[in-house]
Design a protein that fits this description.
By secondary structure, this protein is of the alpha+beta class. Among the domains are: 254 residues, PAS domain (Beta-Lactamase), CATH 3.30.450; 145 residues, Heat Shock Protein 90, CATH 3.30.565. The protein is built from 16 helices and 17 strands. The strands form four sheets. Strands 11, 13, 14, 15, 16 and 17 form a six-stranded mixed β-sheet that branches. A five-stranded antiparallel β-sheet has the order 2-1-5-4-3. Strands 7-6-9-8 form a four-stranded antiparallel β-sheet, sandwiched between helices. β16 and β17 form a beta hairpin. GO terms for molecular function: ATP binding; phosphorelay sensor kinase activity. Member of the two-component regulatory system DctB/DctD involved in the transport of C4-dicarboxylates. DctB functions as a membrane-associated protein kinase that phosphorylates DctD in response to environmental signals. One of its GO terms (cellular component) is plasma membrane.
């Protein structure tokens, strides 16, 4: 049976390969038929819709031309009739124009003209439908001068200051004595521009010289066609037409297939050599053709989808098996990811615990080790030694009063040493001491007094910048002075290798009370371990690396922070920020 099954499988393999090639060939033929059908349909429908669009555009052009000629012909006879009106002739003869304006208004309502003006022999407007024009002088106007010289009606196209054109018919009025005046009838042709602008065409009318006198785009007026087509136009139907007709003569006949060309049509107007030109876009043609092509493509797409669906059914069982295996793999993967995430959380928790334990060990060792006592008592002991030497010298010189003053300072230092030893128990716990208002300026002065022997010995230049008003904080003055002394001592140690050592002390009051100690030493290289216990850059015997760690703990206990950075001109800058007291109310940053 196994041999029979193998033989069946081996016979199915060539059959499967033959079927696969047939299916592929059928799909290729279907795609080729689809491409040819779409191409033939596109060409046929494009030619058909283009011809219909051209016929409609020619019909509209003939309609526009007929309406324009009809409007001009209807108003051409009006000046001839008004030149024979006895009321107007009598008004010119008697110079009594009280009723002439009203008579012209009655005429303009009947004939539909834009305006009518009656001018005397000197060109002065004596009657007009627009009362604002009464009294104007048109002695040099073309329609007045040409009418005086001609025995017939004269047509004039005059460009106004705003760029539009005025179209007038004028005729002189005469009697037996000679020329009395001129009657001028203005024709409203701009209404055609407004009507043409409501369609998708761009239309222009040019006179015998090629100058555009009517156009759906106002910027065209007064220009030739070549100059007008170089202008940018606003959004809308005209913009599409002008953008495409910038150089329409250089485009091939089927350029509109890429949306870049328009149809240009021109006809002659039987009036003084005028020409009417229109530009029609091919957008509607493309839309109609694309609609049919979309339907064809959709039909072929459905056929291809059905073919692929039939092919996919053959692999349905295999895909189901793969999906089942994939689902099992996803379950295993999710379980593995949960285990990995749990292990990572445990490692992070362990790392945090180890860090906390190490920090606690450091703080416990800091409270227990006697090196802290040696570091904090070093400054008072050095000062006491200096004061004792000075008192001995004063006693030898028989100056006991001054020696007593030195003994008084030694007594203050002994009190400070006792306070330091009492404060050592606060390093291992937070808070617990009663705070009181502390004047930062007085605390700084006391700290500088303690450092006076070292400053005098090193010849360090001290610059102090203090505010005019006292700066108060809530805290322990002894501990604040302890921080100041540590910062000053670090500044002195940092300037040992400098030729002209300088230390600048700046006290500022804002949202916090900020004390800045700047030196001109070599600066700070390792900020990460700066406030760690037992970290020092000094030579063995010069320090144990506890000053900044103790100072940072004190400032934190007072609700502030101690920071360090390098200055712009070199050297280190330490800043102690404490909550400031404003009118007895603590304002923390």
């Amino acid at each position: 049976m196994t041999a029979a099954r193998d033989a069946t499988i081996s016979s199915e393999k060539p059959r499967s390969r033959t079927t696969s090639w047939r299916v592929r060939l059928a799909l290729l033929l279907l795609m080729a038929v689809a491409a040819v059908t779409v191409w033939v349909t596109n060409r046929a429908l494009t030619d058909r819709f283009t011809e219909s669009t051209r016929n409609r555009a020619e019909l509209r052009l003939a309609l526009y031309s007929g309406n324009l000629v009809s409007e001009l012909g209807r108003h051409a006879i009006v000046p001839q009739l008004l030149a024979r009106d006895q009321a107007l002739i009598s008004a010119l003869q008697s110079n009594d124009f009280s009723l002439s304006t009203q008579r012209l208004i009655s005429f303009v309502e009947e004939i539909g003209a834009a305006s009518i003006m009656l001018m005397a022999q000197d060109g002065r407007t004596v009657a007009a439908t627009d009362r604002n024009r009464l009294g104007e002088t048109h002695r040099n106007a073309a329609y007045f001068v040409d009418a005086l010289r001609s025995k017939t009606t004269v047509f004039s196209a005059i460009r106004s200051e705003v760029g539009s054109y005025r179209f007038t018919y004028s005729r002189r009025i005469v009697d037996t004595s000679g020329i009395l005046g001129v009657i001028v009838v203005e024709v409203d042709l701009q209404k055609f521009e407004r009507a043409w602008a409501g369609i998708s065409d761009a239309v222009m009318v040019s006179d015998s010289t090629g100058t555009i006198i009517l156009a759906t785009e106002s910027r065209w007026r007064g220009l030739s066609e070549a100059d007008a087509l170089q202008l940018q136009t606003p959004e809308g139907a005209i913009q599409r037409a002008i953008r495409a007709t910038t150089d329409w003569t250089a485009l091939p006949a089927d350029a509109y297939l890429q949306g870049e060309a328009v149809m240009r049509l021109e006809s002659r107007i039987p009036f003084q050599g005028w020409r009417l030109t229109s530009f029609t876009t091919y957008a509607s043609i493309r839309e109609r053709v694309n609609t049919v092509l979309a339907l064809e493509i959709m039909g072929f797409a459905i056929l291809l989808a059905l073919a692929f669906y039939a092919l996919s059914r053959r692999t349905a069982l295999r895909m189901a098996l793969f999906q089942r295996e994939s689902a099992e793999l996803r379950v295993l993967n999710a379980r593995l990811q949960r285990e990995i995430a749990e292990r990572e959380r445990m490692q992070e928790t362990l790392a945090v615990a180890e860090q906390s334990l190490a920090q606690s060990s450091k703080l416990a060792a800091l409270g227990e080790m006697s090196a802290a006592v040696s570091h904090e008592l070093n400054q008072p002991l050095a000062a006491m030694k200096t004061y004792l030497a000075g008192a001995r010298l004063l006693l030898n010189r028989n100056r006991p009063e001054e020696a007593l003053a030195s003994f008084g300072r030694i007594d203050d230092l002994i009190e400070r040493m006792g306070a330091i030893t009492r404060q050592l128990k606060s390093y291992a716990r937070k808070g617990g001491d009663a705070f009181s208002p502390v004047n930062m300026g007085d605390a700084l002065a006391s700290s500088l007094s303690m450092m006076e022997p070292q400053l005098r010995q090193r010849h360090v230049k001290i610059a102090r910048i203090l505010p005019e008003q006292p700066v108060y904080v809530m805290g322990d003055r002894m501990r604040i002075e302890q921080v100041m002394v540590n910062l000053l001592r670090n500044a002195l140690d940092a300037t040992k290798s400098v030729a002209d050592p300088e230390v600048e002390i700046l006290l500022a009051a804002g949202e916090t009370a900020t004390l800045s100690v700047r030196d001109n030493g070599m600066g700070i290289k390792d900020f990460g371990s700066l406030f760690e216990p037992f970290y020092t850059t000094k030579q063995p015997g010069d320090g144990v690396g506890l000053g900044l760690a103790i100072s940072s703990g004190i400032v934190n206990d007072l609700g502030g922070r101690l920071t360090a950075r390098n200055g712009q001109n070199g050297g280190a800058v330490f800043e102690m920020q404490l909550p400031i007291l404003v009118d007895g109310i603590e304002a923390a940053e």
